[in-house]
Write a structure and sequence with these properties.
Length: 409
């Protein structure tokens, strides 16, 4: 039997972005806020990640992942958020109505607004078309962390990590905590893509070699991994392989709702007020900028709550929106649509590049007008987010040409 119920806002996804949005909505006076979380407990990826590094930007202290997730849950419960775990939104039954399933059966929740915060996942070995035997011992960072932190399992004793971005170095710590030695990190790029302090505290501290300009060409081991062969011909003995990064947003529910998907990062296309093309539906967190740290996603949720509340009070939705176009080697820009003039989430626009480049200057143009030109902090490196100020949005023409974000010599 299917039941029907109502809510002011339904948040799909109980990770840092979703919980932060729900907490902020309750703090702004929204009466009935429901969070749907498909796992047995809310908290998202930090719940699986036992190492330190969470909470600096939003809670202003450094915490381990499970403690951070627990603190988020506690704040949500104290705020009066209705958190429903082991519950999945399976389809849309109206503009802002969702069909949900849990152990009690099916329910239709009719909301005034929906916030999608379903996060991202890593592409596994099969999606990356890595050939070889199909033995056990092959993970993504996410499945590795669930094995070790949630199920207290043992991955192996010698691991090869595929990738050299932020999450790859997080995997080094996860393996170290599980008494599994990382014998190599492999990246097709000519350098790692994380910050020097993180590399030194992880791979540097544990003397992990980073093999650049290489890919894994084959995995050996019929019953269990025994070795990998690299594109340079080198064979490395190991019993564990961890594929890291290469993010894809969990966008299946968005697609079912005919929400426009950005061609570049494959998440919902949103404007600077987190609005999708579907009236009353917002998207936040790593599904719209794959992938940032948990505290950045939490700040996303806080910013989005104001936009959602404003929609509840004054239900106006844009019918046409100027696009923000990423020009190669810029891989993507978030948000990718122009919203309210002069606003941007956290006052910034996020972008990434798809290759190593000597360029250091970013230009933002609309037709013949240069809206912004400058050098972001840090190097422009793939798999690392770059932020630029968003104050120039007030000068953009909401009825004008698309806005181009490019690199200049």
């Amino acid at each position: 039997m299917t039941t029907d119920e109502t809510a002011d806002v339904v948040v799909v996804g109980g990770g840092p972005a979703g919980l932060a949005a729900a907490i902020a909505l309750r703090g702004q006076g929204v009466a009935r806020v429901v969070v749907l979380e498909r796992e047995a407990q809310a908290g998202g990826v930090p719940r699986h990640s036992a190492h330190l590094g969470y909470g600096m930007r939003d809670m202003h202290r450094i915490m381990a992942g499970p403690a951070y997730a627990a603190a988020m849950r506690t704040r949500a419960e104290q705020a009066g958020v209705d958190i429903r775990t082991a519950t999945t939104a399976t389809d849309w039954t109206g503009a802002t109505s969702l069909q949900t399933v849990n152990r009690h059966g099916m329910s239709n929740i009719h909301a005034r607004a929906v916030v999608l915060a379903t996060g991202v996942r890593e592409r596994p070995r099969a999606a990356l078309l890595v050939p070889g035997d199909r033995g056990g011992g092959v993970f993504t960072t996410g499945s590795l962390q669930q094995l070790t932190t949630i199920h207290h399992g043992q991955p192996g004793t010698r691991a090869v990590i595929v990738g050299a971005q932020h999450v790859s170095f997080s995997a080094v710590l996860t393996l170290q905590h599980a008494a599994c030695r990382t014998v190599a990190m492999v990246t097709p790029l000519t350098r790692h893509q994380t910050y020097a302090p993180l590399r030194l505290l992880t791979a540097g501290r544990h003397r992990v070699p980073i093999i650049t300009g290489c890919t894994v060409e084959a995995i050996h081991g019929r019953d269990h991994v025994r070795a990998v062969t690299l594109s340079n011909g080198r064979r490395i003995d190991c019993d564990t392989v961890v594929f890291t990064g290469d993010w894809i947003p969990d966008h299946e529910l968005a697609r079912r709702g005919d929400i426009v998907i950005d061609d570049t990062h494959r998440g919902p296309a949103i404007d600077t007020a987190f609005r999708t093309n579907r009236v009353g539906v917002f998207a936040i967190g790593n599904m719209v900028h794959p992938a940032e740290t948990a505290d950045v996603c939490a700040l996303d949720g806080r910013h989005a709550a104001t936009a959602v509340r404003q929609w509840l009070e004054h239900p106006a939705w844009p019918t046409t929106r100027v696009r923000l176009i990423a020009e190669a080697p810029v891989a993507w820009v978030a948000p990718s649509r122009l919203g309210e003039p002069g606003t941007a989430p956290g006052g910034r626009i996020t972008l990434r590049v798809d290759r190593l480049t000597p360029s250091r200057t970013v230009a933002v143009t609309q037709g013949t007008t240069t809206l912004w030109w400058g050098r972001p902090r840090g190097r422009l490196v793939p798999n690392r987010s770059i932020t630029i100020p968003g104050a120039w949005l007030v000068d953009a023409d909401p009825g004008g040409a698309d806005i181009i974000v490019s690199l200049q010599p």
